[in-house]
Amino acid sequence: MNLPHRPRRLRRTPALRRMLSETTLSPADFIAPLFIVHGNDISNPIASMPGVAQLSVDRAVAESSKIAALGIPAVLLFGLPATKDAVGQENFADDGIIQQAVRAIKAAVPELVVITDVCLCEYTDHGHCGVLDGEEILNDETLEILQRVAVSHAAAGADVVAPSGMMDSMVVAIRDALDGDGHEQVSILSYAVKYASGFYGPFRDAADGAPAFGDRRSHQMDTANVREAIREVLLDVDEGADMIMVKPALSYLDVIRQTREICSLPIVAYNVSGEYSMVKAAAVSGWLDERTVTMEILTSIKRAGADLIITYHAADACRWLAEN
Q1: pLDDT for the residue numbered 96
Q2: Fewer CB within 10 A of the end CB, N or C, for the chain?
Q3: Do the strands 308-311 and 267-271 form a parallel or antiparallel pair, or are they unpaired?
Q4: 96 neighbors 152 (Cβ within 8 angstroms)
Q5: pLDDT of 13 over the 80 cut
Q6: 78 close to 207: Cβ distance less than 8 angstroms
Q7: What angle do CA 41, 44, 47 make, to 5 degrees?
Q8: Which domains can be identified in the chain, with CATH numbers?
Q9: Beta strand 160-163 pairing with 187-194
Q10: Contact 62, 18 (CB under 8 A)
Q11: Which pLDDT tens digit goes with each residue over 261-284?
């Protein structure tokens, strides 16, 4: 039988498949998140995120060294304060937990890019992402706090600040504050597209940042919307963002793709806690192979258009890539 089209010819051997792979992953594609707590020699496992722990600064430094040795270029830091209050004062304190961690990591692993989360939720006693008037989040008053946080992180040595609260005009406000304080070189990774997702549950355990009442739908995006996402991206680009984030990743591959098509800036996708934990849970139950599924998910995120992927599987993925 004469069959002129035989696509299987190019899938016949592992060498052919490797040679013709359209999307490839490498350690340089990953950013590793870390949760930092006060104290010494502390590693508190997070029950809902197997393999992830809250780390004291000394442990975070050791983990950062391992991360850099794997070829991962960056860490993203989230802090758990000693005390919380209405505006989250430790968030912008010189001796705050993130400020301590940034200084220590940059001193020990200077080649590692240190990115800091800039938001209020982990630091406030109400758990919301902004300053409150009753139960209403005040956008412009919150911007003033975010400016102080970003400048404080930059002064400690952060390479990149990442505002995640989805406040209007947060990028331009932070850019103005950084430039005004002499931190023109510090980049902004904007959580431009952050959906009000059910996939954040384990993270709220890890960061102790669940809201005390209500939800975050007044500022995080409706999961049904994509045109709104494009508007948010274009606004943040215009305000001076250096990189753009889409969060979550797995359920929003179409949003990553559309963002890639209209934006020339680097695009970062966050493979969030719920996406990580559901793979872990299914693997523990024997329902799927963790390595195979994780690499498939990470490849799909890059294939959709992401330049970088924030993932709790970063270290494991690097080891699996090295074994191929």
Answers
A1: 96
A2: N
A3: parallel
A4: yes
A5: yes
A6: yes
A7: 165
A8: 23-323 (3.20.20.70)
A9: parallel
A10: no
A11: 999 999 999 999 999 999 999 999
